[in-house]
UniProtKB/TrEMBL annotation:
Family the entry assigns: Belongs to the amidase family. GatA subfamily.
Quaternary structure and partners: Heterotrimer of A, B and C subunits.
Lineage: Bacteria, Pseudomonadati, Pseudomonadota, Betaproteobacteria, Rhodocyclales
All residue ranges annotated as the Amidase domain in the record: 1-444
GO BP: any one term: translation
Name of protein: Glutamyl-tRNA(Gln) amidotransferase subunit A
InterPro entries, sorted: Amidase, Amidase_CS, Amidase_dom, AS_sf, GatA
Function: Allows the formation of correctly charged Gln-tRNA(Gln) through the transamidation of misacylated Glu-tRNA(Gln) in organisms which lack glutaminyl-tRNA synthetase. The reaction takes place in the presence of glutamine and ATP through an activated gamma-phospho-Glu-tRNA(Gln).
SUPFAM superfamilies attached to this UniProt entry: Amidase signature (AS) enzymes
Name of the gene encoding the protein in the UniProt record: gatA
Keyword Ligase in record: yes
Amino acid sequence: QLYLDRIARLNPDLNAYITVDAERSLAAAKAADARRAAGNAHALTGVPLAQKDIFCAEGWRTTCGSKMLETFVSPYDAHVVTRLEKDAGMVSLGKTNMDEFAMGSSNETSYYGPVQNPWDRSRVPGGSSGGSAAAVAARLAPIATGTDTGGSIRQPAALCNLTGLKPTYGVVSRWGMIAFASSLDQAGPMGKSAEDCALLLSAMAGFDPKDSTSLERPVEDYARDLEQPLAGLKIGLPKEFFADGMDADVAKAVDEAIAEYRKLGAEIVEVSLPNMKLSVPAYYVIAPAEASSNLSRFDGVRYGHRAAEYTDLTSLYKKSRAEGFGAEVKRRILIGTYVLSHGYYDAYYLQAQKVRRLIAQDFAAAFAQCDVILGPTSPDVAFRAGEKAADPVQMYLSDIYTIAVNLAGLPGMSLPCGFAQRDGKRLPVGLQLIGDYFSEARLLNVAHQYQ
Ligand code: GLN
């Protein structure tokens, strides 16, 4: 009730949630109480949760930030929803705002309007999980789910002073999570601390036969290493991260974090990721290619927006899609269709896939020299609403530090590392930690020791 009251008071401005259903949430809270009373509670039973509106949840409107799904009520639960709400007994407070189909870095492409950053409401919360980030930052939820295809958990976490983790690809099931770029998409936790994220991830992760890329591995307790001392830890600083393009205040905050890690007993080594600079161009070929294919299912026939007037089947498709998708989604569909088309496939898509392999090899070489890689999450603090909206290339470049992680399928996280002053306001800076495959518990340990 406390969170529902805060949502009722603050969400009309912040716009962090697209859908709230107080009655449903309170009923779930009552059921959680009953479960506690019966003595079969999970550690998270009854804990309120904000769910990114990319997860299908039975009986809940699930929009994915798009007009296309404005009236879509999911008939089934995503695996993540089953794990958190049914198995663990967490209480969903509602569905959070996001960039349309998770395409964006500022939450400005949402059909349901932009989200304000609680630290400075004239600035963006980041994206695409900006609604989840704003909800936790403004205490409209204690913790939230997000998804990360190219930075969408880590960058909004950085811009809103949260901790967020993108797991190794395949650790969390994608079943029921509306697909953007299937080979990159991965769900993860966003919370106030590494400890909170460890608890949520432990409840979210696990093999699911319904997702063909879900990995069959034993269930892990991601909180198990939180208290491990860091003595002997080798932290790699990729020289390409510290070249130009980083804001001076961000650089200063990251340097201070490095000094702190030295004090905690870590050894700092320089590493190199020579193909880093190719990650943004490769991503913006691969992600739109997969998106153009994934979004072909929205045709106005089975579900989603259907144009009121049409003459034949082709006109039904065309009009429904023209009306249902926003400008950024259309741009991605156009790029994706182009790079996959006969004659361009080898020149763009195949090249991008080769670059993707090179990037993964760069990381493998770096992890032969260090345990974790450290750098900034985002080149700057939260930017002003509208500042980059008209220039897609500027917007895409803000993903420079996060995207390579998804191309390689590695786990990565962002944690708070101080503030920069802008217009008399304090704006959070995010520190990024990247680990080798399945090193989530180690990353959470490294973050927790700093926090
Ligand atoms: N900003 C990136 C994009 O627009 C990443 C988004 C994401 O991770 N979902 O594609």
